[in-house]
Every structure is written in structure tokens, then in C-alpha cells.
Design a protein that fits this description.
InterPro entries: Acyl_CoA_acyltransferase, GNAT_dom, N-acetyltransferase. By secondary structure, this protein is an alpha+beta fold. A seven-stranded mixed β-sheet has the order 1-2-3-4-5-7-6, covered by helices on one side. The longest helix is centred in the middle third of the chain and has 16 residues. The structure holds coenzyme A. Coenzyme A binds next to helix 2, strand 4, helix 4 and helix 5.
Length: 176
Amino acid sequence: MVLRPLARDDEDEFLRLVAANTELHHPWVSLPATPEAFRDYVARYEKPDEESLLICLRETGEIVGLANISSIVRGRFQNGSLSYAAFTSGRGYMTEGVGLVLRYAFEKLRLHRIDAQIQPGNRASLRLVERLGFRKEGYSPELLYIDGAWRDHERWAVTAGMLGVEAKPHPTLPAH
Ligand SMILES: CC(C)(COP(=O)(O)OP(=O)(O)OC[C@H]1O[C@@H](n2cnc3c(N)ncnc32)[C@H](O)[C@@H]1OP(=O)(O)O)[C@@H](O)C(=O)NCCC(=O)NCCS
């Protein structure tokens, strides 16, 4: 698997993949489904505190999933929020791809912690974060507005230390 940033040139393929996976994604995620929404989405992830990464097969370049690191906060927090969606599911691609995203977040972005908010009924997503070494930190009623309502979410997170990553501290981390 390889990662690459989502780019404007991906529009046609991305919209095709979103249309082909509406059943898998509903009601958990809502990805851009029109050219206008796609362009807004790419523009959002061109900002420095947001990253959108495509998970691709190394040999063919086929896009099999998407993972975003949003709301990156530096300073004493060094935290980002993870979200993801498969375009090819049930083959282990997301486990490996999101694992790479975590290494990228900890080694290259030098974040300390990645969190993921997951609805209790989203069994596939809960299994994914458990496989990747996240720990459950808590439960927040009415945390996020998803599919037309404020939904309760479990809060999961993983730190660089939990995965044994030792990266140089980010320059914005205070000395003490
Ligand atoms: C959440 C989501 C990304 C998980 O994707 P996934 O396909 O289960 O994850 P993987 O690609 O790693 O596949 C792992 C599954 O494939 C199975 N599998 C089959 N063949 C495999 C192989 N050769 N190697 C590894 N796993 C294999 C695994 O057993 C596992 O199934 P299990 O969880 O039932 O045990 C996907 O369900 C999705 O896109 N959901 C909608 C969007 C969503 O919910 N996003 C998160 C919002 S919080």
C-alpha cells in the first residue's frame, strides 16, 4: 500500500468511487458526491491543519480508501482527528493503509496523539481501530452531527508512544 495526498486531478475517479460505495458509507460518512463539493473538499485539505490521504495499491495505483487527519493542533496538544472510508472493503487494505497513515502522522507530522470518534453501532470501524492499537477513552452523547442528527460517539485514541514511535519533537512543542 502507498499513500498520496488527494488532488484536484482525482475528481473523476473519486466521484466514481463515492457513487459506487454509497451503501458501504451510509450512514457513517458523507463524502463529496458532486464536482463542486469535491473541489471544496480538496481546498479544505490544502490548509496546513488538515491532511487528506488516498490509500492506494502499490502495484497498480488503484485507490482503495481515504483517510483524513483533521483539526491538527500544535503546541502542547500535537493532536489530530482521524476519519476514513474504504472503497474496497473486507480485504485488509484499510488496516494496512490506516496503519501507514498513523506512522505518517507520528513520524512525519510529528503529532503526539490521533483520535477517532466512532458511533457505537459502527462495528467495522470499531474493529479497525482496535486492530490498530487505539484505546477507548470515553463516550460522548450527541458529539457529532451525522446523517441529519447529533449522534453519540465512542472516543478512541492512540499516541506515538503506544505504537513505539520515537520521533523528534515538533518545533512548536514547548521545551517544558
Ligand atoms: C470502517 C471501514 C473503513 C473498515 O473497513 P474494512 O474493510 O473492515 O477494513 P479492512 O480493509 O482492513 O478489512 C478488514 C476486514 O477484512 C477481513 N479480511 C479478509 N481478507 C483479509 C486479508 N487477506 N487480510 C486482512 N484482512 C482480511 C478482516 O478479517 C476484516 O474483517 P473483520 O473486521 O470482520 O474481521 C469500512 O467499513 C468503511 O468504509 N465503513 C464506512 C465508513 C466509516 O464507517 N468510516 C468511519 C467512520 S467512524
